[in-house]
Amino acid sequence: SPSVLDAKCTEDGDCPMGNPVVHGNGIKTGKCVMFNTTHSTCEIYGWCPVENSTLPRKPLLAEAENFTLFIKNTVHFTKFNFSKCNTLQTNDPTYFKSCTYDPFFNPSCPVFRVRDMVEATGETFGDLALLGGSIGVHIKWDCDLDHPAAWCQPQYSFSLQDRRYNFRTASYYWDSQRRLYRNLLKLYGIRFDISVHGQAGKFSVIPTAVSFGTGIALFGAATVVCDLVLLYLDAKADFYRKEKFEEVR
């Protein structure tokens, strides 16, 4: 097409064979051909027809809002030799098939409904179901190991990272006449990016003693600094020196 600037030419030398067409759909064959009576363009080798920019008019899988996502996550704090999983430790084989995560009533269930995750970002499923989107799932572990292990529970939060998400995939095959074909699919969907952060702490006598001693040392250093300022830098240094020191003759 003459609208592709890199494809315009006047002779074959303007179309180096094998060079890709910038903003085009193939590689140059080395020939400059007549497009119409006024324009000549580089001939390309590529797939045809080229991909069009038609957007979907309605979600193709609207019922996906009731799909569920199972997220299993385990953290291990090596310093304290402590491990914890976000799933509830239960002997009931049907628990994970029937439970759904709720931050108040069922925080130990790692099964999340897609609609609930989308709504937690402040969006509605219908807005993302058409052109897709990207949602960040943040799992935060903040554990005080002086308390029972059951108190160490993850906190989930969700954020909208992108209002559009799509990708392409192709399948290639030969027909009966040994001609190469492909089926190119442009897929829209909701992508989930999961990130995990955590910290843990536990009381220990030795670090506490070190911190206490360091604090006392800082108090001593502060006294020395204040004396130096008042004795040598303050405008009333002489008065302070007379009050601090007693001269004996």
From TrEMBL:
Gene3D superfamilies in alphabetical order: atp-gated p2x4 ion channel, atp-gated p2x4 ion channel domain
UniProt main location, coarse: membrane
PROSITE patterns assigned: P2X_RECEPTOR
InterPro entries assigned: P2X6_purnocptor (IPR003049), P2X_extracellular_dom_sf (IPR027309), P2X_purnocptor (IPR001429), P2X_receptor (IPR059116), P2X_RECEPTOR_CS (IPR053792)
Bilayer topology: Multi-pass membrane protein
Protein transport found in the keyword field: no
Chain ranges passing through the membrane: 212-233
Catalytic activity, as annotated: Ca(2+)(in) = Ca(2+)(out)
Highest taxon of source: Eukaryota
GO terms for biological process, alphabetical: calcium ion transmembrane transport; response to ATP
Location within or outside the cell: Cell membrane
Any one annotated GO CC term: postsynapse
Name by which UniProt lists this protein: p2X purinoceptor 6
Keywords of the record: Cell membrane, Disulfide bond, Glycoprotein, Ion channel, Ion transport, Ligand-gated ion channel, Membrane, Transmembrane, Transmembrane helix, Transport
